[in-house]
Amino acid sequence: MIKLIATDLDGTLFYPKRRFTLLTKKNMKLLKDFSAAGGKIVLVTGRSRRVASKVGKKLNINISVLGCNGAFFYEDNEYKYDKPIDQQLFMKVYMKMRKNFGIIGWLLLDDTDIMKVSTPVVSNVIILIARLLNRFNFAYREKYLIGEKPFLDAVSSGKCYKLMPVFGMGKGGREKAKSAAIALEDLFGDQLDITIADVSLEITKKGTNKGNALRDYIKEKGISEDEVLVIGDADNDISMLSNFKHSFAMNSGEKEAKRVAKYHIDYVSDIRDCVLDENGKLKEFSEPKKI
Questions:
Q1: pLDDT exceeds 70 at position 123
Q2: What is the pLDDT of residue 132?
C-alpha cells in the first residue's frame, strides 16, 4: 500500500503552470483525496520553504518539506534538521568561481524566505529585468535581495543551504554550466554535491540530495520504501527516482530523469489509480495504465 507520495515541485507538481492558482484542479484533488484517505505528502524540492509552504496553505493540509534538495526538513512550522554548507567552504567556492566561466549571477538559499542574489555588475537594467521576471511568476514568485553585501552578510550570519551560479541563457549558458560543473567536481567534489540545472548549478553539502533526504525521512517515520511513490522531472530528482521502485518521471522532463524512472506520466494527477481505489481509499500499488 502506498502511504506516502514524495513529489518535486517545478516541472512536476507545478506542471502545467498555473500562475494564479498555483496548482491544477486535478493535482489539487489528488493530493486532497490522498491526504483524506490517510496518506502522507512530502514536497521534495530544490526551492526554499516559501513556495512549498504555499502548497500546504492552498490545500489546507499539513505538508512536510524536504527543501534545497534535502538540505533541510521543515514540518509543523519549524526546521526539524538541516545540513548547511560550511561557511568557509562556501566562501572558497564563491571567491574561486565568481569571475570565471561567464557567471552572470549567484543565488543563495538559506533559512529565511528571502533569496539573496549577487551579480558581477549590479545595474538598474539587471534589477529591473529581475523584478519583472519575478513579478510575472505571480504565485511562484520569490522574495529576494540583490547585491553582494546582503549576499555575503547572509553567508556570515545565516545557514546557507544551496548555492546556485547562473551562466546565461540558452545553449551557451548550458555549455558553460557543464564546464563549470567539471571544474567544481575536481576542486570540491569531495566536499560538495554539484548538480547541473539547465543554465545553472545547484551546490549543496556533500551527500545532500533528494534521495538521501527521503530515505532518512521515511526511516524516521517508520515507512518502508515499498510504501513510497516518488515523482520528479529533472537531474536533481535522479537520486530519488533511481532509488525507489515506485518512481515516476514527467514526460515533459529531462532525458536522464526519464531514463532512470520506472514509469512516465503526463501529469501528477495521472497516478490516482495507482494509489487510490474507486472509493477514494488507499490501496496496494498498481501499475499505471499508460507506461
A1: no
A2: 61
Q: What is the pLDDT of residues 12-68, one digit of tens each?
A: 999 999 888 999 999 999 999 999 999 999 999 999 998 888 999 999 998 999 999
Closest by CA position to 265, among listed 1, 30, 4, 18? 30
pTM of the full structure: 0.92
Closest CA to 84 of 159, 174, 14: 159
Determine the pLDDT at residue 133: 60
Nearest residue to 236 via CA among 270, 216, 260: 260
CATH topology assigned to domain 4-82+209-275: Rossmann fold (3.40.50)
Question: How many whole angstroms separate alpha carbon 162 and alpha carbon 109?
Answer: 5
Spell 66-97 as b/e; 16+ CB within 10 A means b: bbbbbbbbbeeeeeeebbbbeeebbeebbeeb
Question: 134 pLDDT exceeds 80?
Answer: no
Query: Widest CA span of the chain, in angstroms?
Result: 58
Out of 3.30.1240.10, 3.50.50.60, 3.40.640.10, 1.10.540.10, the CATH code matching 87-205 is 3.30.1240.10
β-partners of residue 231 are 7, 248
Question: What is the C-alpha separation between 194 and 163, in angstroms, rounded?
Answer: 10
Kindly tell me the burial class for residue 135, based on how many C-beta atoms sit within 10 Å of its own C-beta (0-12, 13-18, 19 or more): exposed
